[in-house]
Design brief:
The protein has helices at residues 62-67, 107-120, 133-143, 167-180, 212-221, 246-251, 265-278, 296-305, 317-321, 324-333, 350-358, 383-397, and strands spanning 3-5, 14-20, 23-30, 41-45, 48-53, 82-84, 95-100, 122-127, 151-153, 186-188, 225-227, 284-286, 309-312, 338-339. By secondary structure, the chain is an alpha/beta fold. Helix 4 (167-180) runs parallel beside helix 5 (212-221).
Length: 408
């Protein structure tokens, strides 16, 4: 391990000391060649503290004045901290990513994809955007057909015909055909429970009984359902200075969910968990730590209650990396219930996953500021826990995977 400077320091400001006949006042910073303004200070006298004393120097230089007005988006301080640590560019063990979306499946794109997978030790990628029918067959051929053993395809289902009397049975029949054509699981997108509407204009809840034939078919076929329900609870909170996702909601205002068009966060997620209770024979993988990475104790309660519920790590690493001690303890306790996942494909961003899980490094960057304005800390997971998250749990849940490609 080597000592790593977290970032290169910017040029320092000159620092001036200000004194008063009544005692020491404060210190003020001035730009080189310019002047500064001391906005407020507290003057200490013998046995007494006076009220704030407002002092003013000369007129501010334009450059200094401009430097005092920043948006959250622009504020990006460079740390001066020097700590042991290294960037990890290749996973310690081969891993299975159960949460990826690949839509450009030209021969050139797939060749490049596999080369990037090899570089970071990604042995099997689960493409959750498999579609159905002819689309699914084409996806299977473009990936599994050219690189056997490197890809898994999950089928998808549409809900726009949910009012048809035989919708559930027809959807289940199509899913069975998709499995015969190479699908190894079912992915449910967040439109269910949030955006899908039936013929009356009513929101289709995740636990809508019209969908029950689909979940029963998954149990019969022995395939898992990776289901994305809801979004971060911050999207339902007021978009103000107290919101952790203020920046993201400013960048993407359409992600605000505090309107009559959506159920509450608690209701949205409760519908998913109720679905799990109603279908105990079906294996469900709740995407994104079930949006409870900021409340692992609650997520643990659900896992304790629902033995058919699992979860994965797509787009929520920032939650674990800011609570290293409790997250490590939690992952050790629930090591059989968590799977590796990333979501948005960018091979270089996996480096942060590896560093969080495999090292005890401190205070390093996350890769997407709108998700996390804080730093990451390594969890230094035990080897057996790491193996279960990286590949052993997926080998148990996803049918048709070749365990020979992985260590014991």
């Amino acid at each position: 391990m080597r000592l790593t400077r977290v970032a290169t320091a910017r040029p320092r400001f000159a620092r001036a000391r200000i004194f008063s006949r009544m005692g020491q006042v404060s210190s003020a910073r001035a730009t080189p060649g310019g002047t500064a303004k001391l906005v407020r200070t507290v003057v200490t006298t013998t046995g007494l503290t006076s009220a704030a004393l407002l002092l003013s120097w000369a007129v501010l230089t334009p450059s200094y004045a401009a430097s005092q007005t920043l948006s959250v988006a622009d504020y990006d301080p460079i740390s001066t901290l020097v700590v042991p640590g290294d960037i990890i560019t290749r996973a310690k063990y081969p891993f299975i990513d159960v949460h990826s979306h690949q839509r450009n499946l030209s021969a050139t794109a797939v060749d490049r994809l596999v080369a990037d997978m090899d570089r970071i030790n990604l042995q099997v990628m689960v493409n959750l955007s498999g579609g159905s029918g002819d689309r699914l067959k084409a996806v299977v051929e473009a990936t599994k057909g050219r690189y056997p053993g490197r890809f898994v395809i999950f089928a998808n289902i549409r809900f726009d015909r949910i009012d048809d009397p035989d919708y559930g049975e027809r959807a289940a029949t199509q899913l069975e055909e998709d499995v015969r054509n190479g699908a190894q699981g079912l992915k449910i997108f967040k439109n269910l429970g949030m955006f899908s509407r039936d013929a009356t204009g009513q929101r289709v809840p995740t636990d809508d009984p019209r969908l029950d034939p689909i979940w029963r078919k998954c149990a019969e076929l022995g395939i898992p359902v990776l289901i994305h329900t809801g979004e971060p609870d911050s999207f339902w909170l007021p978009h103000d200075r107290y919101n952790e996702r203020w920046l993201e909601l400013s960048m993407f205002p359409n992600r605000k969910r505090d309107t009559v068009h959506f159920a509450s966060f608690d209701k949205t997620m409760a519908e998913q968990h109720n679905l799990f209770r109603r279908h105990p024979e079906t294996t469900f993988i709740s995407a994104h730590l079930s949006w409870l990475g900021n409340n692992l104790a609650r997520l643990g309660e659900l896992l304790d209650e629902l033995p058919n519920m699992y979860t994965e790590l797509g787009a929520v690493l920032h939650e674990l990396g800011r609570q290293p001690r409790f997250a490590r303890e939690w992952l050790i306790r629930y090591q059989d219930r968590v799977l590796m996942g990333k979501d948005i494909w960018n091979p270089d961003e996996y480096y942060t996953y590896f560093r969080v899980f495999e090292t005890a490094d401190e205070y390093f960057d996350y890769y997407r500021k709108r998700h996390a304005h804080w730093k990451m800390y390594g969890l230094d997971l035990p080897p057996e826990v790491l193996k279960k998250i990286y590949y052993k749990n997926a080998l148990r849940l996803v049918p048709g995977l070749d365990s020979a490609a992985f260590p014991e």
